[in-house]
Structures are given as C-alpha cells and as structure tokens.
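Slide 14.
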Amino acid sequence: MTAVRDTGLPFMKMHGLGNDFVVLDARARTLEVTPALAVALGDRHRGVGFDQLAVITKGTQDAHLTFYNADGSLSGACGNATRCIARFLMDESGREALTLTTDRGTLPVCDAGGGLTSVNMGAPQLDWAEIPLAEAMDTLELPIEGAPTATGMGNPHCTFFVEDAEAVALDQFGPRYEHHPLYPRRTNVQVASVTGPDRIRMRVWERGVGVTLASGSSSCATAVAAARRGLTGRRVMIDLDGGTLMIDWREDGVWMTGPTAHVFDGVLSPDWLAAL
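Slide 15: predicted structure.
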C-alpha cells in the first residue's frame, strides 16, 4: 500500500438492485487489503460505503474475485458483485462470456441480453457439514422456531418461509438468527413469502452487513429452499427490496440473472489512506 498512499487508490462504485459495492482492481498492482481498510471504506459517513468490498486480481481463469463484508470479515460469495464485475470485464474485453474464480469456486458468467448479466453460482450445498452447521441434521427443516431451511451457496443461509415477508421486523429478526449456535460461521437470514406461481417476495439480513436491498446468494438459496420444499419449481422470480432477480436451478448449478450498474469511478486520497 506504500505507493497508493502517495498517489491515491482508484476504485469503482457499482450496484446490483441497490446491493452496492466498492470494487478495487488489483490486476496490475499489488494491494494489501486489510479488514481495517474494508471497515473504513465501508463507513457510509467517513468512507465510501458499501454492502461488500470486491477485489479483482489475476487468477487461473479470466480474473479472481475476493469479497469483504462491511464489518471487515471475508465473504465466500457475492452473486450481485460477481455480476457487476463480470459486466465491467465483458465491456472491457468485448467478450460475451467469461470465467471467474472466487472462494466459492469457478463461476461462468455471460451476457444475457437486454442489459442483463447471468452468473452460474454453482451447485447448492445441502449437507449440514458443507453449509456448515454445528451438528448433523436434516437441512430442509432446522430445529429452530419457524423450521427454516439451511442452504450453502459459498456462504451459509437460513431461509424462513412466512405468510408476509413485509410484516417481519428484519432489523430485529435478522441479528437474532445470524449468530444462532447452529451456524458456527454465522449466517445470512432470509424471510420469504410465495406470492404467485414461481414467484417469491424475499427480504434479507446479510451477515456482517445488516439489512440490504438485495442479495444474489440469498436469492439463490431461497430459490433452492423453495424448490426443495415443493413450494415452487426450480425457475423462479425473486422480488427484493431493490428489484427482481431470476433464479434458475439447473443441472450445472444455480444461475442468477439481473441488471447491474456501474455508478462512478473515484480515487481514495493519500490523506485518507494515511489516516488508516
């Protein structure tokens, strides 16, 4: 970070359905991204503000992505950030399909037409040890009030199916289950209501962040949970606070399709970086 403390650090601000990100492009430079930097950047009053920080580096495929939550913790997956960065990289290269790597694994991405971008988030993790949970159990209905479903999508998820997702006080409900003893690595928490044939209204509390307008991995987990419980088919529309995603659980993985936005580019000043 010595060089960027002298010259400043360029960044991009992006969002997918209001799920917002700061993106650092480290393909041509060496960056030491620490939890302290992530927390400072994520401060919406003294930094830039984001739900997740994403770092692009060179990888074994077209690029590798690393994600940090607003509290500085690492996130194994971030579907909306992956789509946003995929759109940026496809526009940069003129290609219509790429392959990215994350801690989740290898993720194919492509232009879905009409300004939409798709990513294959991989096969869902349905076994208790993969999610992970603290002990062996059936992941379809956990022994928690409300009988939520546990799903792994590179990070843990706990999905509650409720009559009215709008009526849940998510700022109180979410943290109660994020730290539940059954989830040793904490969990994202979703409340979801089936509103029509293959349509779900979902709201999300993200671990290490809080209430967000959208979450790609949470949308994938909710779609998988609904299909497993026989509430929907395997192709559903997920209506979030920030907009709608299409989720398609196919044989090769869970595909997510939706819009992206590259909002602006900026430079973190040397003075701001020196104060860290």
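Speaker note: The mean pLDDT is 96.
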